[in-house]
Specification:
The chain is α+β, with helices and mostly antiparallel strands. It contains 9 helices and 15 strands. The longest helix has 26 residues. The structure holds 2-oxoglutaric acid and fe (ii) ion. It holds the Pfam family DIOX_N.
């Protein structure tokens, strides 16, 4: 496995400190992630669907409903979210057109190490599996796009920048609405997370990620490859847009407890792409910030089975990642304080090959 120059060294068998968190480090999350690479078994579980537009509840009832769904499984789905289906379709249409550009054009917007912005092709190696994700992706981090010259020109792809800026901003607004719900339940001000995810700040590092999982041939399907290997997200909250018919997302709630119990394989539950629905999940930053009350749940994208759609799979994720200068400091002191910048750098270093 190729490691980025500043990534933590892999554990050696006699490394007895591997499970102990170092102060201000992400070792707890990494130690967990390295143990979850196996295929596992399929398990049915309810993934709750919450209608944000249902006015029969008070705000505080809605906050409870969101909190309970998140605290149980770490994943839930929302409808009535206010994002126009046409805007979602337009973003997917643009994403497909971006990935169809010649490699030479995409390579001009290549993701530089540690920036989490721009284009990458089969470069993400998950600590859980040690294999490369069978995908390419392009990340829009609005604070860095001009600085790093990452937008395709209008000649290369007309209207791309405008469409993506608008979609990023729509997703940011929705993510802040959901995070405000969590803020109230955690006893923070309504605006606590909104102030720490400020798109006008140079420290903003939330990102919109366009994903293209590569088409496959039946003969190429190998049991030990993944479209996206098992992982937890680094952020506070992820909003995930999927396309009907393009399956593969699976989640494994309570994976660490199941692995500790050591009684057999982990159980994975499929999340079906449903029109009008956005899938939400808690990431590691919010797990820390909530004193581990909200779980950041392990998930992955499996390869299609031989009788399924073998063509490409597209998805779009918005990762609400606290601004670089925000300090993640849970009320109980259970985890040492760490800036969101240090936090993210350590996770990125462990996930991307150097270069
Ligand atoms: O494409 C998907 O359905 C999930 C993507 C994902 O988990 C990620 O990019 O972190
Ligand atoms: Fe993810």
């Amino acid at each position: 496995m190729t490691a980025a120059p500043d990534s933590p060294t892999p554990d050696s068998p006699d490394d007895t400190t591997a499970d102990r968190p170092r102060s201000g480090s992400v070792e707890t999350e990494l130690a967990k992630e390295r143990t979850f690479g196996g295929a596992g078994i399929d398990v049915d579980r309810e993934i709750r669907v919450i209608d944000l537009a249902d006015t029969s509840r008070t705000q505080s009832e809605l906050d409870d409903e969101i909190w309970n769904a998140a605290a149980d499984i770490g994943f839930f789905q929302i409808t009535g979210h206010g994002i126009d289906e046409r805007a979602i379709d337009a973003a997917f249409d643009m994403a497909e057109r971006f990935f169809a550009l010649p490699d030479g054009v995409k390579a001009k917007r290549r993701m530089a190490p540690g920036t989490n912005s721009g284009w990458e092709f089969r470069s993400q190696r998950r600590p859980s599996t040690g294999t490369l994700d069978q995908k390419e992706s392009y990340q829009v981090t609005v604070s860095r796009m001009d600085l790093l010259d990452l937008w395709p020109t209008g000649d290369e792809l007309a209207d791309f920048e405008r469409t993506m800026r608008s979609f990023e901003s729509t997703n940011h607004a929705l993510a802040m609405r959901v995070l405000s719900s969590f803020a109230r339940k955690l006893g923070f001000d309504d605006e606590f997370f909104t102030e720490r995810h400020d798109p006008t700040s140079p420290e903003y590092q939330s990102t919109l990620r366009l994903l293209h999982y590569l088409p496959v041939e039946v003969d190429d399907l190998r049991r030990d490859e993944w479209r996206a290997g098992a992982h937890t997200d680094f952020d506070c909250l992820t909003l995930l847009h999927q396309r009907p018919g393009q399956r593969g997302l699976q989640v494994c709630p309570g994976a660490d407890a199941a692995a500790r119990a050591g009684d057999g394989e982990l159980g994975w539950t499929s999340i079906e792409p449903t029109p009008g629905t956005i899938t939400c999940n808690i990431g590691d930053m919010l797990m820390r910030w909530s004193d581990d009350k909200l779980p950041s749940t392990l998930h992955r994208v499996r390869m299609p089975r031989p009788d399924e759609h073998l063509g490409p799979r597209y998805s779009i994720a918005y990762f609400a990642q606290a601004d670089r200068d925000a300090v993640i400091e849970p009320p109980s002191g259970r985890h040492a304080p760490i800036t969101a910048s240090d936090y993210l750098q350590q996770r990125i270093a462990a996930n991307f090959a150097a270069g």
